[in-house]
Specification:
The structure holds 2 protein chains of 2 kinds.
Chain A: H1 8-28, H2 31-57, H3 65-82, H4 87-109, H5 114-134, H6 136-139, E1 145-146, H7 163-168, H8 170-190, H9 193-203, H10 205-209, H11 215-241, E2 243-244, H12 251-264, H13 271-289, H14 293-307, H15 311-325
Antiparallel strand pairs in A: 1-2
Helix pairs in contact in A: 1-8, 2-8, 2-11, 2-12, 2-13, 3-4, 3-5, 3-11, 4-11, 9-11, 12-13, 12-15, 13-14
Chain B: E1 2-13, E2 16-27, E3 31-35, H1 42-50, E4 57-62, E5 65-66, H2 72-78, E6 80-82, H3 95-106, H4 121-133, H5 149-161, E7 167-171, H6 179-195, E8 199-203, H7 207-213, E9 216-221, E10 224-229, H8 231-235, H9 238-245
Parallel strand pairs in B: 3-8, 3-9, 6-7, 7-8
Antiparallel strand pairs in B: 1-2, 1-4, 4-5, 9-10
Helix pairs in contact in B: 3-4, 3-5, 5-6
The chains are: A mainly alpha, B alpha/beta.
Chain lengths: ~325, ~250
């Protein structure tokens, strides 16, 4: 994490062309492709939150499915019990519910690091998974809960009858706007004094204590922010999927979020975003082409760890740095 | 004026009496050395005072206030800082960020989530000034993990110094560096500490360093204080020469 990278101008140079390309997608790509990209952006928000813990605080969570699932189920329960289908209510509900759960889980988890932290987050997420299964009269059990197409911006943009057209256009732009805000906000957070304190904790917990950083408290705040990002992603995912089931609370979904981040590179800011989008395409096409899609993903993961341990973006950054440093002939 | 005082401070590790009913006093403004062979209890004493470990019994008073049970955070806020025998830095952060973080933490600014750290020019300027005092300004943008051992030792002390403590513990600031580098490192540290009117306790094994830079020396042996005096008094103390200096 190059300290020289903390420049808004540099961020704009990287982000604006990408944003321009993302804005054009619905006008040039097939609706299916746009919806697929929309899934990728939603997963990218989750990965961005996850990486605040892994890349910046040094904590590997295997329980982020809990927050994604809580965000998704909060939306489904708002629909079921409050009969509301406003996207703003979904977003607010997802954020509040995931903040609450992350706050509670964080109290227990941030006291531990390394494998203990990972196992604890995994165990707590599995508790939620089993609750979602058992309390079927509330959660729908293994059938899950359906979520209708929401209205956007109050009732200004109602959910249309042509669901795919709605998701590939208006909903895509809605998700894109939230994605941009999430990226900008996270960029500020990791380059803030608080972000530096998290990186200090990651590098040397004892020394961080001895400069006056209250390690557990800072980890807890990072845990909650991370959980809220992932919960927000869950809330945005449900209208896309139209249904939430206990599968997204299962630890294997946490494994996917880890995969996104490792694929893109957890030591770079943009790595988890790129990793989430690539993974989404990879899984979708692997599932579409072979029944052995899990084998394909497994091979990718093994190759990734052996050949590109710093991920796609990490490797690209290193190659770029190497080319800039190489003497011109 | 007595800045720090321990009364009957005790820490056992199993059957080992690491620190055994130690009465230790530090006066404001002095630079004193804590000497002793390996296992004498020097680092344990500093760990107890700085809050890394809790004492079994006894009391620690700082500025006439009991801080025996205070947390590390509270002790830092009270004005006690320390460096480490084995260098403890934030290796992936730049040298400047190591220093900036200490300044941010001292000013309570690490709680800020929504402002860019680089935009705080006052903190950046202060961190650069401290780096300059320690001769590290030219390494500001280099990752701390890439510095030489001597530079890492200096940065370790600089990070503690940037907290503007009233009492600074330096745990073997010249260990692991070449004999040639020791004097320049100690010159920098003692001049900065004296200019900042900071009281310093230096744990050190190298007697040449101790006798050159520290007007008061406290010698420890097997968890107790063996002697306390000027360099000449310590040189002339038979128990010290027999147990620590290796001569009679």
């Amino acid at each position: 994490m190059n300290p020289l990278a903390a420049s808004p101008a540099r961020l704009a140079r990287v982000a604006l062309p990408v944003l321009a390309a993302l804005l054009v997608v619905p006008f040039v790509a097939a609706p299916y492709q746009t919806v697929l990209l929309c899934y990728g952006l939603v997963f990218a928000i989750a990965a961005l939150g996850f990486n605040l813990l892994l890349g910046y605080t040094g904590l590997l969570s295997f329980g982020h499915s809990a927050f994604f699932g809580v965000g998704a189920y909060a939306v489904a329960l708002i629909v079921k019990y409050l009969k509301i289908s406003s996207m703003e209510a979904f977003v607010a509900g997802g954020i509040l519910a995931s903040a609450l759960v992350a706050g509670l889980f964080g109290i227990v988890c941030v006291r531990y690091t390394r494998i203990y932290f990972g196992i604890l987050t995994l165990a707590l997420s599995q508790v939620l998974w089993s609750l979602a299964f058992k309390f079927f009269w509330v959660t729908g059990g293994s059938d899950g809960l359906r979520v209708p197409t929401p209205s956007l911006l109050g009732a200004a943009i109602p959910g249309r009858t042509d669901k795919i057209a709605f998701l590939a256009n208006r909903y895509y732009f809605y998700v894109l706007a939230i994605f941009v805000v999430c990226v900008a906000l996270m960029w500020v957070i990791v380059h803030s004094p608080f972000g530096k304190a998290l990186q200090a904790i990651r590098d040397n917990e004892t020394r961080a204590e001895f400069v006056g950083v209250q390690v557990h408290r800072y980890r807890w705040v990072a845990f909650v922010v991370s959980g809220v990002y992932t919960g927000l992603a869950g809330a945005l995912w449900v209208p896309l999927n139209g249904l939430t089931t206990p599968d997204i609370l299962h630890w294997t979904f946490s494994g996917k979020i880890v995969f996104f981040t490792v694929l893109g590179g957890f030591q770079t800011f943009f790595g988890p975003i790129v990793g989430a989008v690539i993974y989404n395409y990879l899984e979708t096409y692997a599932v579409g082409h072979t029944v052995y899609w899990q084998l394909v993903l497994g091979v990718v993961l093994v190759v990734l760890v052996l050949v590109l341990p710093s991920g796609v973006v990490g490797t690209a950054s290193r190659l770029g740095l190497w080319r800039r440093r190489a003497p011109s002939p | 004026m007595s800045l720090l005082e321990t009364r009957q401070l005790t820490k056992y590790f199993g059957d080992t009496h690491a620190v055994d009913h130690v009465d230790f006093r530090v006066t404001e403004g002095e630079v004193l050395a804590l000497i002793g062979s390996n296992g004498a209890g020097k680092t344990t004493l500093v760990n107890l005072i700085s809050g890394l470990i809790r004492p079994d019994s006894g009391a620690i008073r700082f500025l006439d206030r009991d801080i025996t049970g205070a947390s590390i955070h509270e002790k830092i806020a009270a004005g006690i800082a320390r460096s480490f025998q084995l260098v403890n830095l934030f290796d992936q952060l730049s040298t400047l960020d190591n220093l900036s973080l200490a300044v941010f933490a001292r000013e309570g600014k690490t709680r800020k989530l929504f402002s860019l750290s680089d935009a705080d020019t006052a903190v950046r300027d202060e961190a650069m000034t401290v780096l300059g005092q320690f001769g590290l300004a030219g390494k500001a943008e280099m990752a701390a993990g890439g510095l030489s051992q001597g530079e890492r030792k200096l940065l370790d002390v600089a990070v503690a110094y940037a907290l503007r403590p009233r009492l600074l513990f330096l745990d073997e600031p010249t260990s692991g560096v070449s004999t040639r580098e020791k004097a320049p490192i100690m010159d920098v540290i003692t001049s900065v500490v004296r200019a900042g009117k900071i009281t310093a306790v230096i744990i050190e094994h190298d007697m040449d360093v101790v006798f050159t830079y520290c007007p008061r020396i406290v010698a420890m042996h097997q968890g107790t204080i063996l002697a306390d005096g000027t360099p000449d008094e310590i040189r002339g103390n038979e128990q010290v020469t027999a147990n620590l200096l290796g001569t009679r």
